[in-house]
Write a structure and sequence with these properties.
InterPro entries: dCTP_Pyrophosphatase, DCTPP. The chain is an all-alpha fold. It is built from six helices and no strands. It has two domains: 85 residues, MazG-like (Helix Hairpins, Orthogonal Bundle), CATH 1.10.287; 32 residues, no CATH class. The longest helix is centred in the middle third of the chain and has 21 residues.
Length: 119
């Protein structure tokens, strides 16, 4: 996928235009964006806070839209932080997946929830 067709890049560009139109660029530094992201992650956690594991796995239909909004907020803040820090998030994700494949070989970690240094 080329950069010009990347959904990440499209969203980053839209977020930049959204912020510029509101004169919010002045507030969108990495520190402030990370703080905002932390708040959104807290709002996501709140949706799951008192659910049983079974309820969480079958998230209540009447709360799905709220879940989608929180996930979108988190994704958009991540993209904004990456943009401000000049990180190609799509490339970073590809590299991290490759690294995780090395750190967690199937034959050593299959069915085990342990950190790579405990395999």
């Amino acid at each position: 996928m080329t950069k010009t067709t990347s959904p990440f890049l499209r969203l980053q560009n839209e977020m930049t235009e959204f912020a510029k139109a509101r004169d919010w660029e002045q507030f969108h530094n990495p520190k402030n964006l990370v703080m905002a992201l932390s708040g959104e992650v807290g709002e996501l956690a709140e949706l799951f806070q008192w659910l049983t594991p079974e309820q969480a796995a079958n998230f209540p239909a009447d709360k799905k839209e709220a879940l989608a909004h929180e996930l979108a907020d988190i994704q958009l803040y991540l993209l904004r932080i990456a943009d401000k820090c000049h990180v190609n998030l799509e490339d970073a994700c590809d590299k991290k997946l490759a690294l995780n494949n090395e750190k967690y070989p199937v034959d050593k970690c299959y069915g085990r929830a342990v950190k790579y240094n405990e395999l």
